[in-house]
Amino acid sequence: MKVIKIFSFIIVVLVSIVLVVAAIAPNDYALKRDIVIIKNKSEVFDYIKYLKNQENYSTWAKMDPNMKKNYQGADGTTGFISAWESDNKQVGKGEQEILKIVEGERIETELRFYEPFEATDSAYILTESVSDSETKVTWGFVGHVSYPMNILLLSMDMDKELGVHLEQGLENLKKLLEI
């Protein structure tokens, strides 16, 4: 009986420590990557503003060529939704909606993940002229992890884990557009 009390006390202390650490751990993360593409800004922006084109350069879209896709609205305009569903756990089920477009400059989207976990994040792609024939493209994510799951941010390097996908996606975009 005494062993059970000691064991229970240890469990309560450990859980309490985890909850206290989660209370002071960060809830938000942000990451971005950029690349220079040898193509003028308007041509680059006119390509990236269409979410369907992400299927040609996003690493997540390429993970499961058999994923189910569904679209609502007019691509390249606010309110357009691109939804996906895959048995691949790295792809899962979710949707991306265009929230804002600053023509020739920026596209902002909301990512809603349903499986294998639920989350809502923001993403953006910016274009900036480097010269008449060169465009800097920046792709970024901003996310929030609620308490107490935010403790996972202490052990996960979101910048590293997601950044590699952004880098590869931008490399794929560069290859596509510089042809």
Quick structural summary:
The protein has 179 residues and is α+β, with helices and mostly antiparallel strands. The chain contains four helices and seven strands; from the N terminus they run αβααββββββα.
- CATH T-level topology: Alpha-D-Glucose-1,6-Bisphosphate, Chain A, domain 4
Provide the CATH top-level class: Alpha Beta
How is the largest sheet built, in terms of strand order?
1-7-6-5-4-3-2
Point out poorly predicted stretches. none
- Level-2 CATH architecture: 2-Layer Sandwich
Globally, the shape reads elongated
- Give the H and E element order: HEHHEEEEEEH
Describe it.
By secondary structure, the chain is of the alpha+beta class. It has a single domain (27-177), classed as 2-Layer Sandwich (Alpha-D-Glucose-1,6-Bisphosphate, Chain A, domain 4), CATH 3.30.530.20. It is built from four helices and seven strands; from the N terminus they run H-E-H-H-E-E-E-E-E-E-H. The chain has helices at 2-24, 41-48, 59-62, 158-177, and strands at 28-37, 68-72, 81-85, 93-102, 106-115, 119-131, 134-144. The protein has a seven-stranded antiparallel β-sheet. Strand 4 (93-102) and strand 5 (106-115) form a beta hairpin. It starts with a helix and ends with a helix. The relative contact order is 0.22. The model has no long low-confidence stretch (mean pLDDT 88).
